[in-house]
Write a structure and sequence with these properties.
By secondary structure, the chain is of the alpha/beta class. 33% of the residues lie in helices and 17% in strands. Strand 9, helix 11 and strand 10 (296-300) form a beta-alpha-beta unit.
Length: 326
């Protein structure tokens, strides 16, 4: 049996924070499929957060980040000197679908090339006849891992667990309590389930002997006062922390029995904590943007005949959360 590729190049155009969080399950699955491989992450058309704010999250998963590589945009790259001249890889995975970019990438030395561009025309492995590209962005790149490995993709490779950050999370959420996470914010208020309903859910958790933990970003920090008045035992760890990072949010998530979040970056961070997650969607498509949590319950406003978040009933959220905590 082959030992698998020793070197892998993953190509992306660029990664903003949201992109980086959504691609982490793909990266975990790739590392799980090829644990001994040296993975190079190349951002060909811009900046990758894996070379910046999310670098601590990919330590041990990625060996090298080629940031703002300037590869994959120009027709002239099809001629003359090859991209990354002198470098070869056992496996190249192209996560984008622009044909020109894929043609350029194929000029990099490689043994196998996996790409969905032009219906997998350039790929050395292709899905079976009748394949339909999934709507989910996470599922799309997971399919590339399955093609490369020949096995179902499983995002089981562990994320880094920084001891100092883990200790901070324990200090903020000490042992001895049953914590339930609530992330009421999002990138736009139209994606937010009403705050009074988050508060009602939190009050119910307190009645059941659980401790509600509100994860409030800078845009929601002024909500803390109103929440405290109505939920006296609620915790606000991000408001107490000396420094707030994605690593800390994930570490806090690991202290929780389950969590509720809107379609947001915090929701994706909680999914990476590998806890049961209830994810709330209204105007944005859950099929495309749902986080890759190990145990995920998606509640869509569309199921109640609307794209407005307030269509999702409180009773449905409570029932989904209770099921997660059984």
């Amino acid at each position: 049996m082959s030992a698998g590729p020793a070197t892998i190049l993953v190509y992306v155009g660029l990664d903003a924070v949201g992109d980086g969080l959504m691609k982490l399950p793909f990266l975990r699955a790739l590392k799980a499929a090829f644990p001994q491989a040296r993975i190079t992450w190349m951002a060909g058309k811009g900046h990758s957060v894996y070379a910046g704010i999310l670098a601590p999250l990919v330590e041990g998963l990625v060996s090298e980040v080629l940031d703002q590589a300037g590869i994959g945009s120009r027709v002239g790259e099809l001629f003359g000197r090859r991209p990354l001249a002198g470098r070869t890889f056992d496996l190249i995975i192209d996560t984008q679908r622009r044909l020109l970019t894929s043609l350029i990438l194929r000029r990099i030395g490689h043994e196998r090339f996996i790409s969905a561009a032009a219906g997998f025309l350039l790929s050395d492995a292709r899905p079976p006849a009748g394949y339909r590209r999934p709507a989910s962005m996470v599922a799309q790149v997971m399919d590339l891992v399955e093609l490369a490995s020949g096995q179902p993709a499983d995002a089981c490779a562990p994320l880094p667990n920084d001891a100092a950050i883990a200790a901070t999370a324990v200090a903020l959420l000490p042992d001895g309590a049953s914590y339930v996470g609530l992330a009421p914010g999002a990138g736009g208020r139209i994606k937010c389930w009403p705050l009074d309903r988050f508060i009602a859910v939190a009050r119910r958790q307190a009645e059941l002997g659980r401790v509600p933990v509100f994860l409030l970003g800078p845009a929601e920090a002024d909500w803390a006062g109103a929440i405290r008045e109505q939920v006296p035992n609620a915790r606000f760890p991000l408001q107490q922390a000396a420094a707030v990072t994605p690593m800390l949010t994930i570490a806090l998530g690991r202290r929780m029995g389950a969590a509720i979040a809107n379609d947001s970056g915090t929701g994706h961070m909680l999914a990476l904590a590998d806890i049961p997650l209830v994810s709330l969607f209204g105007p944005t498509p859950a099929d495309k943007f749902a986080p890759a949590a190990r145990t995920l319950t998606v509640l869509r406003a569309a199921d109640w005949g609307s794209d407005k978040m307030d269509a999702i009933p409180e009773t449905a959220v409570l029932a989904a959360l209770d099921k997660c905590l059984l």
